[in-house]
Amino acid sequence: MSYAKVLSVGLVGVTGHLVEVEADLAAGLPAVVISGLPDTALHEARDRVRAAVVNSGQRWPNRRITLNLLPATLPKFGSAFDLAIAAALLGGSGELPLLPLEGVVVLGELGLDGTVRPVRGVLPMVAAAAQAGVGRVIVPAGNAAEAAVIPGIRVRAVDTLHRLVTFVREGSPLIEPSAETPEPVTGGPDLAEVAGQQMGRRALEVAAAGGHHVALLGPPGAGKTMLAERLPSILPELDDDAALEVTALHSIAGLLPPGGRLLRRPPLQAPHHTATVPSLVGGGSGLARPGAVSLAHRGVLFLDEAPEFSKGALEALRQPLEHGRVKLARSGGGTEYPARTQLVLAANPCPCAKPGGDAYCECTPLVRRRYLGRLSGPLLDRIDVQVRLMPVRAAELMAAGSDAESSATVAKRVVAARQAAASRWAALGRRLNAEVGGPHLRRPPWRLPARDTAELRGRLDSGSLSARGFDRVIRMAWTIADLDGRDRPDREDVREAIQLRTGEAT
């Protein structure tokens, strides 16, 4: 037999595609040719596979070998095809009867000694195989637990090429993945540790309940970072679909923790202010990799010292914040990553940032305007909650944690509010108030009475609030009503939403 075929999976972004790895061995000068839009790592597979085959005790065929990856128009990236290439090549040479691998997806990178090494993106690859109707997959042992979280598919693992060969020839058993163990619950940041800042705590609760973006402005030590880092602690755990999305993104980035279990907690990404545009929204040579905004999908993206970020990096976030997705176009192909995250910006009021606040500031009015002017109007217009934090008083600091609500207590109200919103917007296919389009909120039956929106409409007419800001205030008013257990917002809810939007004192 001079021809053989083995199934594998290729990734374009987070989308997997079934790939047929073909091997044809013909008479002629010994050579290996790989076709099907391979990248550099895949071109180098010829040398890795040759060494792995020989060092596993198998005979390398001295013939002209043509390897083709179908569909040929789909770009192929990475080293996950190594094991499938080796199996197809040995099958084409007559060394292996490939009947046991019929209808089986094979994934894995080969070391020169024949070991099978873990690869990135196994979770979305196995999910794509299951969606394509494949019932069995063989993955590296290091990815077995990760692959096993996909329901409806039988996962087996190998640690060496030799183990795969003996399985095909003799039916020797493969490695079975261990059962997923629940993620251990460990202590983390808690809202009870925040001193004072009732306005900031309320803003955080509203943001968590409705999925709203937040900007925190205040002097050093006011608690901006503490509040932002505790936002994930009051968010609900991810459901199965969201957990699969988040885990798939971290799998592609190679950031899954040991054990390969589903990520149930909303992620927190807090890049340094020197972060580049590609590191925030995604990039890299060849196929673009997910950036921080995608790794924070269904979680929180926290930009501390926001004015210190480059203008290009901040402005690049505008489209993902609006649409919840990042579309990246590169010469090697375009891809799209989900990016439905909650953005939290924290900023000092001026460059000198004296702890005492404005009374001790040494900056001129022009310097202060220029500093905060780095956060552009179009970006801030997409931030629903914008609050100014005052310096913490001594009495508040000494009483911290004595009677403050814990994250667990606030999280219960957030869960109830989200359930109310999901039930209300189910017909629209939305789950959070922040996801509902403005036109729906301005039409019956959801339009609020004129008496409740009089102040809001006045601000829109005067130009102090944009049309986008108008809609975002209405969304927050619905969230406030959900937190208070009421069916519809009233005038006081709209007024509080305006205060949270503008940062005005109560």
Write the layout of secondary structure elements.
Elements (H helix, E strand, L loop, with lengths): L2 E10 L2 E12 L4 E5 L4 H4 L1 H11 L8 E7 L11 H11 L11 E3 L2 E2 L5 E2 L4 H10 L4 E5 L3 H4 L6 E5 L2 H10 L27 H13 L3 E4 L6 H6 L10 H13 L15 E2 L7 H5 L10 H4 L4 E4 L7 H5 L2 H6 L1 E6 L2 E6 L3 E6 L17 H8 L4 H4 L4 E4 L5 H5 L8 H18 L13 H4 L12 H9 L4 H17 L7 H12 L4
Parallel strand pairs: 3-4, 5-8, 8-9, 10-15, 10-16, 11-12, 12-15
Antiparallel strand pairs: 1-2, 2-4, 6-7, 13-14
Helix pairs in contact: 2-3, 7-17, 7-20, 17-20, 20-21
Structure overview:
The N and C termini lie far apart (81 Å). The chain folds into three domains: 3-170, Ribosomal Protein S5, domain 2 (2-Layer Sandwich), CATH 3.30.230.10; 213-383, 3-Layer(aba) Sandwich (Rossmann fold); 399-506, no CATH class. The protein has helices spanning 40-43, 45-55, 82-92, 122-131, 144-147, 161-170, 198-210, 224-229, 240-252, 277-281, 292-295, 311-315, 318-323, 365-372, 377-380, 394-398, 407-424, 438-441, 454-462, 467-483, 491-502; strands at 3-12, 15-26, 31-35, 64-70, 104-106, 109-110, 116-117, 136-140, 154-158, 214-217, 268-269, 300-303, 325-330, 333-338, 342-347, 385-388. It is elongated. Strand 13 and strand 14 (333-338) form a beta hairpin. It is of the alpha/beta class.
